[in-house]
Design brief:
The complex is a heterodimer of chains A (372) and B (299). With 372 residues, chain A is of the alpha+beta class. Helices cover 26% and strands 34% of the residues of chain A. In chain A, the strands form four sheets. Chain A has a six-stranded mixed β-sheet with strand order 7-8-9-3-10-11, sandwiched between helices. Chain A has a six-stranded antiparallel β-sheet with strand order 14-13-12-15-21-22. Chain B folds into two domains: 19-78; 80-298, Orthogonal Bundle (MetI-like fold). The chains are: A alpha+beta (372), B mainly alpha (299).
Chain lengths: 372, 299
């Protein structure tokens, strides 16, 4: 299976008035499950359509393996059917006039494959996805989950080099989504197909991806493994986009500790020492005010109130089963904490939380970039 | 009480049941309700009267036509006017069938691929070209008659059936393209993209995906186009001569001779109305679905 390399790609819509992608660079490794994540309108679907050959970029180059499939400079543009790519659309886009069998075999028929070969391939794919019983039905007679499977099957049946998925789980209900997500990952691992998956749902991205590419306004903000994006977000936007519930953000001033031993972040709701390794960066940035982010799951219950604990009143408790979400009012601030050890009837009670200073995220309030 | 419930159930549609609820109200609304239906009935009769007159007259003997009320029942119904009218209109009716079938197929086919291109493909000046094309619909027939006549004569197609087919095809394309563009616009874009990914070019996508999933649209435009070409007179009069005269012209010519035989004339009208009537009755259910644009969406 080939890798995909996109270099300096630029796409504009509306006769150049709307810039969808600018100087876009991305390399997707052989057999990798890469997720393009971002809010709607960030250009992630445009990237997918460019790889597929449904959009001709204004400039830049796309290579699949060693093949140049799109290059504005070299005037190369392979049509979608010449790229051996399969794509699954959010709407499934099943051909309404054909049976499931017809949908699966259509691409193979277009390639003028032998009847027997088509038959065998369709049966095999249907079996893999558990849709053998549906082969003679029309799409209108299928449930959402079944349509989803047929759409996947139609992509798989061709043994594509590259698999493109555009929000394929968007139209499924929550339970089905988890199941299909798991199956999708299992399938991709067993087939080893290079996969590009577009979604705006960070949970999907976190659970499926080998690597996440987080996009905003046509640019890549950060790429990395789900763990990297979660634990070391490069800027405020990434920090806020990845992770549920959302990261707690609060403005703090930077001060020297009274005993001169180091730096202290403080605001009217919290006071935290700065770990040694970030202190240097913080000093170098020269900011005396920063934005501090704390992941809800990084909070722990403090046995007693101390100089570095966050003391507040429990406003709302949301039991999740294995954990509870606690909305803690600290002054006029609201912090969300995900705790594993709290009884669920403590609304109104006062509660002290601590956080390991090494796990906090510090951002520059002006550039919104990560410090340290 | 129960019977009333069934009756309103039979009325079925939303408006019917709304009417029912008002009918259950005060006496004055009930009177209004009756008046309303009486008025509707009156207009229905009024509009159907000419058709009724044509039907009874066509079944009468020639001498009975002259002495009785045109709306009265025929005293001894006869089909002989139909046979006579058919004998006179045989050739023009055949011409009409050829012209209509040819013109309909031509304009629907070309209009369909045209509408498909305008609905699903973006190209330079596409909107401008489409606007120009559609503006041809609003061009009055009369304004183009002289150049049209000259062109057809120069092509050697005057007084020929192919000439009339050509004219109807060309004149029908804009309307067909406009209608088809609307219908094909409802076919989801992702379906076209998917078909492209599956390795198909525009033509195969059109024949394998777009056409089969918009059958109702095709039927709708086909019936519309068939009816307008079948009923058309002006082109038949100008481009068609004695050899290629459509039935609409021939029917009028029947009256032009010494004395009009109204029963034969009316029987001829019936012959002329028959194909369109059959078409409407047979395709009625598709037409109603077709006129409601959403009905053709593919998913």
């Amino acid at each position: 299976m080939p890798s995909i390399t996109i270099s300096d790609m630029r796409v504009a819509y509306n006769n150049g008035k709307t810039l969808a992608l600018s100087d876009f660079n991305l390399r997707i490794e052989d057999g990798e499950f890469c997720v393009l994540l971002g809010p709607s309108g960030c250009g992630k679907t445009t990237v997918l359509h460019c790889i597929a050959g449904l959009i001709k970029p204004d400039s830049g180059e796309i290579r699949i393996g060693e093949n140049v499939v799109t290059s504005a400079e070299k005037r190369v543009f392979l049509r979608p059917q010449e790229r051996n790519i399969a794509m699954v659309f959010q709407e499934y886009a099943l051909y309404p006039n054909m049976t499931v069998r017809g949908n699966l075999s259509f691409a193979l028929e277009t390639m003028n494959k032998a009847r027997s070969e088509i038959q065998a391939k369709v049966e095999q794919t249907a079996q893999m996805l558990g849709i053998e019983g549906l082969l003679d039905r029309k799409p209108a007679e299928l449930s959402g989950g079944q349509r989803q499977r047929v759409a996947l099957g139609r992509a798989l049946v061709r043994d594509p080099q590259v698999f493109l998925l555009d929000e394929p789980l968007g139209n499924l209900d929550a339970k089905l989504r988890d199941q299909v997500r798991y199956e999708l990952r299992k399938l991709q691992l067993s087939l080893g197909v290079t996969t590009v998956y577009v979604t705006h749902d960070q949970t999907e991205a976190m659970t499926l991806a080998d690597r996440i590419v987080l996009m905003k306004d046509g640019r890549v903000l950060q790429e990395g493994t789900p763990r990297e994006l979660y634990s070391e977000p490069k800027n405020l936007f990434v920090a806020g986009f990845v992770g549920t519930p959302q990261i707690n953000l609060t403005r703090c001033s930077v001060r020297r500790q009274a005993d001169g031993s180091g730096l202290l972040l403080s605001s009217n709701c919290l006071s935290l020492p700065v770990p040694q390794k970030t202190a240097a960066c913080l000093l170098a940035s020269g900011r005396d005010e920063v934005i501090v982010g704390i992941r809800p799951a990084d909070f722990q219950i403090a046995r007693e109130s101390g100089p570095f604990s966050l003391d507040g009143r429990v406003e709302v408790v949301e039991p999740l089963g294995d954990a509870v979400l606690v909305y803690l009012a600290i002054g006029e601030h609201m912090m969300v904490a995900k705790l594993t050890e709290m009884a669920e009837d403590e609304v109104g009670a006062s509660l002290s939380l601590t956080v390991d200073p090494a796990r906090i995220h510090i951002f520059d309030p002006v550039t919104e970039e990560r410090i340290g | 009480m129960k019977t009333r419930a069934t009756a309103s159930g039979l009325c079925g549609n939303g408006r019917g049941s709304a009417m029912d609820s008002s009918a259950n109200g005060s006496a004055s609304t009930r009177v209004l309700y009756v008046l309303f239906y009486a008025l509707l009935l009156l207009f229905a009769v009024f509009y159907l009267l000419p058709f009724w007159g044509a039907l009874t007259t066509s079944l009468k003997q020639a001498r009975e036509v002259a002495i009785t009320n045109p709306l009265a029942f025929p005293s001894s119904p006869t089909f002989s006017p139909y046979l006579e009218a058919f004998a006179q209109l045989k050739r023009p009716l055949l011409n009409s069938v050829l012209i209509t079938v040819g013109g309909t197929l031509g304009s629907v086919f070309l209009g369909s691929i045209c509408g498909y291109a305008f609905a699903k493909y973006r190209f330079r000046y596409d909107n401008l070209i489409f606007t120009l094309l559609v503006s041809a619909i609003f061009l009055p027939y009369q304004a183009i008659l002289v150049p049209l006549f000259q062109t057809i004569r120069a092509l050697g197609l005057y007084n020929t059936i192919p000439g009339l087919i050509l004219v109807h095809t060309a004149y029908g394309i804009p309307m067909c393209a406009l209608m088809f563009r609307g219908f094909y616009g409802d076919v989801p874009d992702c379906l076209i993209k998917q078909a492209m990914m599956d390795g198909n070019g525009p033509w195969r996508i059109y024949t394998k995906i777009v056409l089969p999933s918009t059958k109702i649209a095709t039927v709708t435009v086909l019936v519309f186009q068939f009816t307008s070409i079948w009923n058309e007179m002006l082109f038949g009069l100008i481009i068609g001569g004695p050899d290629s005269m459509p039935a609409t012209i021939a029917l009028n010519n029947m009256m032009g001779t010494l004395a009009a035989e109204w029963n034969v004339q009316m029987a001829g009208s019936m012959w002329l109305a028959l194909p369109v009537l059959i078409l409407y009755i047979a395709m009625g259910k598709y037409l109603i679905r077709g006129y409601m644009a959403g009905a053709v969406t593919a998913s």
